[in-house]
Amino acid sequence: MTMPPAISRDNGHELTYAVLGWAVVYGGLRVAWTVGEAPDFPPLGSDLLGFTGWWSVGLCLATGAAAVAVARATTWRPVLAGFAWTLGGALVAAAAILLPELVSLLLFAPGPSFDPVAFASRLGCVTGAALLGLATARYQRRTRGDCPDCCRTIPPGRRRSVPAPWARWAAYVAVAGLVTRFAAQVVVDPDGLAGDASMIGLEIGLVLAGALLPLALVRHWGEVWPGWVPLLAGRTIPRRLLLVPGFGLGAGIVAYFGMGLTQVASGSESEFSDVFLWVAMSAYLLLGLGLLAASADYHLRTRGACRSCGR
């Protein structure tokens, strides 16, 4: 039996082995912490959110099984791909606290509850999500569409050079989310916006990530350096310069504040009022979703043409 060209050309076994290796190592750690005495990580008592104990072990087993399934599948199965992407999202959500920890490290101001072991565990969890995502993306390239080298389904000659209307709206929603978050802070604590150097650095980063980045994803100056940029004016902007923070921050924000909203809905206690938490976290969630949508359009619109089909 002759295998289809797309399957025989690239089975992606190395990624499958990488995910399985991760499942054994990280899953073994979760088993040890579940059977034995798991460390008490501040401030929540656990390194992961939602998926703790045997749930975390099951998540590792499911990730390994999904990697094997997408490697063995020879036809495009949307349900299988959706299941694999959902597992990756669950891994990111479980390690959602990694986002503020990374921000604090970038600002050289880790909080008193920072724990290196918990931080390493969350990094390991996200690593599994990244490996499974790569394996799933390779599966899509192998089986989706009618080209043996890509998963593009658009007709030849139909490449877009301008952002889709929904992408523009997504970018505006992201900016609106940032504005809403700052407005909520002003209403609750006007003096909270003025703080030490680390707080000012955080606010500058929020403006860059929540205003400049989403607009760059849907504007021409997000593809070519503007004329006022010294030495780089007129040059093409590397796609990864926008896509990495766009997808990375978008996924991290959605995971962190999505889990936060879940905790607020369950009645978790906080020093802030429920109204402020609902407004602020919902605003952040809109920011993250807007970034993901605008980044997806930017990726589809700026990627190079396939060498086989020209799309």
Structural class of the helix and strand makeup? mainly alpha
Could you tell me the mean pLDDT?
84
**Number of helical segments?**
10
Q: Roughly how much helix do the residues carry, as a percent range?
A: 55-70%
Strand proportion, as a percent range, falls in: under 5%
Major β-sheet profile: none
- The SSE order reads HHHHHHHHHH
Q: Supply the number of structural domains.
A: 2
Radius of gyration, Cα only, in angstroms? 21 Å
Shape: globular
Distance between the termini: 30 Å
Number of strands: 0
The low-confidence parts are: 1-10
Q: How do the helices and strands line up, and which of them pair or pack?
A:
Layout: H1 5-9, H2 13-35, H3 54-72, H4 78-94, H5 98-106, H6 116-143, H7 165-188, H8 197-216, H9 239-265, H10 274-302
Helix pairs in contact: 2-3, 2-6, 3-4, 3-6, 4-6, 4-9, 7-8, 7-10, 8-9, 9-10
What does this structure look like?
Helix content is 65%, strand content 0%. The protein has 311 residues and is an all-alpha fold. The longest helix is centred in the C-terminal third of the chain and has 29 residues, at 274-302.
Outline of this structure?
The chain is mostly helical and 311 residues long. The chain has 10 helices and no strands.
Q: Which characteristics define this entry?
A:
disordered N terminus, mainly alpha, single chain, 2 domains, 311 residues, 10 helices
